[in-house]
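Action item from last meeting closed. Structure (183 res):
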């Protein structure tokens, strides 16, 4: 039994963006109630076993679930690099984003639509979250169903990605390693 799997499977409200602040302040009974409500509301499936998944992608997602929002921001910033750096607001982005941008990952194809205000951290979070949700077909159903929880309530996360991004999986691994190496 893996504590990470238990946490993700049985306490999804901890990562549900609209409820995160409230969830952290509740007693165990309140947290249990929110978890049950979220599982029922979204019809979240349960894993067949509470062991870590065998698939490397699923295993790492479960282990690094708390860092998923940071990974999403890095993915969005890298794919929208030119547009992000063209904004004055990019100066206010964390140093980790600027460091990741220097790694030179492939930018988004010019045929893709670029969101307004590309240096806004909330926009980057939603846009990157939408891209991460395209990984769902490669994951067990119970993880795929929870993949959108950290990005719920963000308009671009709800819209999803227009088309599959072939560079996403490499960019995901790179962003995940970058976040893991943060102090």
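Sequence:
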């Amino acid at each position: 039994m893996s504590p990470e799997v238990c946490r993700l499977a049985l306490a999804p409200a901890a990562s549900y963006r609209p409820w995160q602040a409230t969830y952290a302040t509740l007693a165990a009974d309140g947290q249990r109630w929110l978890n049950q409500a979220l599982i029922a509301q979204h019809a979240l499936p349960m894993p067949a076993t509470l062991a870590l998944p065998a698939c490397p992608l699923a295993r790492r997602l479960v282990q690094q679930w708390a860092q998923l929002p940071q990974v999403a921001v890095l993915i969005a910033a890298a794919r929208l690099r030119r547009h992000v750096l063209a904004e004055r607001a990019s100066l206010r982005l964390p140093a980790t984003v600027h460091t990741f941008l220097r790694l030179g990952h492939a930018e988004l194809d010019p045929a893709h639509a670029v969101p307004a205000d590309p240096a806004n951290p909330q926009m980057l979070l939603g846009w990157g979250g939408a891209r991460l949700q395209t990984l769902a077909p490669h994951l067990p159903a119970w993880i795929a169903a929870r993949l959108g929880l950290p990005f719920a309530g963000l308009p671009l996360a709800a819209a999803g990605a227009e088309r599959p991004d072939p560079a996403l999986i490499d960019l995901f691994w790179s962003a995940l390693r970058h976040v893991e190496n943060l102090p």
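Note appended to the action item: The CA atoms of residues 34 and 40 lie 10 Å apart.
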